[in-house]
Amino acid sequence: MTSPAAPPTPAPAAGEFTHAQIMRILYGLLMGMFLAALDQTIVSTAIRTIGDDLHGLSAQAWVTTAYLITSTIATPLYGKLSDMFGRRPFYLFAIVTFIIGSLACSFADTMYQLAAFRAIQGIGAGGLMSLALAIIGDILPPRERAKYQGYFLAVFGTTSVLGPVIGGFFAEQSSILGLTGWRWVFLINVPLGIVAFMLVARTLHLRHERREARVDYLGAAALVIGLVPLLTVAEQGRTWGWDSTKSIACFVIGIIGILLFIAVEARMKDDALIPLRIFKSRAISVTIVGSIIIGMAMFGAMMMLPLYMQIVHGASPMKSGLMMLPLVLGMMSASIISGQITARTGVIRIFPIIGTALLSIGMFALSHITADSELWVVMAFMLLVGLGLGNCMQALTLIVQNAVSPREIGMATSSATFFRQMGGTIGVAVFLSMLFSTVGDRIKENMTAAAATPEFKQALQTALGDKTLMADKEAYDIVQGLANPKGGGGALNSVSEDSSVISRLPKAIAHPFEAGFADAMDHVFLTAMGISVLGFLVLLLLPKIELRTQSGMAAAAAAKSKAEGEAAAAASANGMDEGEAPSTTRAAEDHVSGTSPAEEVVGTGSAWCAAPTMEEIAADGQPVPEAVHDAEVRVELREQGEDVSHKTPRHRRSDD
Fold first, then answer.
1. With pLDDT > 90 as the criterion, what percentage of the chain qualifies?
2. Is the Cβ–Cβ distance between 122 and 67 less than 8 Å?
3. 643 to each of 77, 565, 570, 573, 626, how far by Cα in Å?
4. Per-residue pLDDT averaged across 530-553, rounded?
5. What is the secondary structure of 389-426 as a DSSP string?
6. Which has the closest alpha carbon to 499: 346, 314, 353?
7. CA-CA distances (angstroms) from residue 335 to 37, 54, 355, 416?
8. Can you tell me the distance from the alpha carbon of 653 to that of 656, in angstroms, rounded to the nearest whole number?
9. Side-chain half-sphere CA neighbours of 590 within 13 A
10. Helices (H) and strands (E) in the chain — how many of each?
């Protein structure tokens, strides 16, 4: 009797890259991410100048909303499609689309044209960030990935400083090379984008086996129906009124769209844009909820701090960008340190927990700043917030990538990015509404207290006779309104619309306005602290995390090789020629992913016990035993009609 042939020894895992190759790929990815991250901050600094020049300041919110809608919706689409057809073409498409949108924006003649062109930009931006992180997931194992992802966070932090500086510079220039200064805010993306395209086209060559699956068109359509009205009302609700007819209509349509999206995803199963089964994993579900919460606190803080610097400390947009350096340094240092520790030890679960704790403490400290707080004190609190964010962002992305199969890294990464963006959108909408709904009362309280002091009365009398101040209509209207509240008190409302006028008032008169804004921001930071504490409690539910030691490509290649070897051995044992061995592509994929519904019985010596399914093992954050992997492949092949059963009766019963 011929004994079964032993499976061939697997060749060295494919998909491994040298440090030099990784860095060449990284340069292109970083340039692409730099484009998207810089664009968000540089435009926000120059938008008021753009609105004035195009005579459409009232429409400026639509410029932001259009970009936000398309980039958010595009993010999960890029992730799913790149899993199916490969990362490279979609990343190049994202860069080209972003360049085209930027070039069109630089020649816009109206704010509505600009909003349309910003929507095109957003389609490109949706892939630049999420696909860059997914590609790193393909070429690096999770433990090593922690070191390199720190570069991406460094780019994100750097652009938060450079954006306001560059945007402010361009906005202040009347003309550069024959074009209005603000148009270079968009035009600068063109040469940068071309460089990024050339780097990526030259260095990014990843082997990808196309996976046949249905494209989730209905899911994408339902997502559009759900998100467009919700994102629109998040941006416009404060202007419309949250209980207005427009807002309520957006809420109703959005909720219907989200429910429809969930129903479609349940029907599409593994082919869904965001497969609902991933939420069965405790590691993924906890991480995504944590990402939403941290996104709310992060974007809310990064919106409030520049406002505080500009309104309370009178900083220009350029200067306020530089004042954000402590936050950036905290993010970068925490990211680098946590990444190095993770690479050396494999420890990762503790970092987002520490991060949310530091974030909560930092927000609590910021909730006590006033108009008279020393700048160095505020910057120290900003550093603490940065340390918290740096420990959270890359760790949460790594945990999600590690919890899915290598063939779903794109979907997982884009899903995490998508939910973090949604959290940020909600946070900004809630915090800005809270700020502007309370700032009026806070200013009145401080103004009433100041008006009783001799210093304020003297400053007001002096200002009424100041000829220089008379030339500044907005500022002088406020002075007149304070001197005669019944006749001109309405002028005070202009402060909420254009806070820059505060810096043009005499110090004694400006102080109650500054104190009012500072007090209103304290309530925002206190709310952000509560949200951060909630994030801390949620992340305590994270299971123990075992990071894989192989990159996504290497793991997929090794699993396929092993499955093919076992299939060949089984075929030989049953008298089949090697060429007749069954196809194992799908089996190999499930070998890695753990998505097959089969159960295994794992034994030690002669003692056998029922083991959990692979989904349950993954949900607990534990590595899948090799015996379970082997049984998965055997059971999958048997379901396809192949006879690959063990000759040993007890092993065959175990598979059954």
1. 18
2. yes
3. 39, 15, 8, 10, 21
4. 83
5. HHHHHHHHHHHHHHTS-GGGHHHHHHHHHHHHHHHHHH
6. 314
7. 17, 41, 10, 18
8. 5
9. 22
10. 26, 2
Dihedral angle over CA of 53, 55, 58, 62, nearest 10: -70
Provide CB contacts within 8 A for 179, sequence distance 6+: 106, 187
| 409/231 Cα distance (integer angstroms) | 26
Please enumerate in sequence order all residues whose Cβ is within 8 A of that of 158, keeping only pairs 6 or more positions apart, or say none. Answer: 328
Q: Return d(Cα 193, Cα 433) in angstroms, integer.
A: 35
Question: Are the C-beta atoms of residues 78 and 415 closer than 8 Å to each other?
Answer: no
- Cα–Cα distance for residue pair 408/128, rounded to 1 Å: 18
Question: Is 141:299 a contact under the CB 8 Å cutoff?
Answer: no
Which residue reads 């259009």 in tokens? 66
Tens of pLDDT, residues 139-164: 887 777 777 777 777 787 778 778 88
For residue 400, what are the CA distances in angstroms to 27, 137, 180, 348, 463?
Answer: 24, 11, 44, 12, 59
Q: Which amino acid is at 276?
A: L
User: What are 102-133's pLDDT values in tens digits?
Assistant: 999 999 988 889 989 999 999 999 888 888 88
What is the residue-wise DSSP string for 286-346? HHHHHHHHHHHHHHHHHHHHHHHHHHTS---HHHHHHHTHHHHHHHHHHHHHHHHHHHHH-
One-letter amino acid for residue 329 of the chain: L
**Least trusted range by pLDDT, from 240-244, 271-275, 300-304:** 300-304
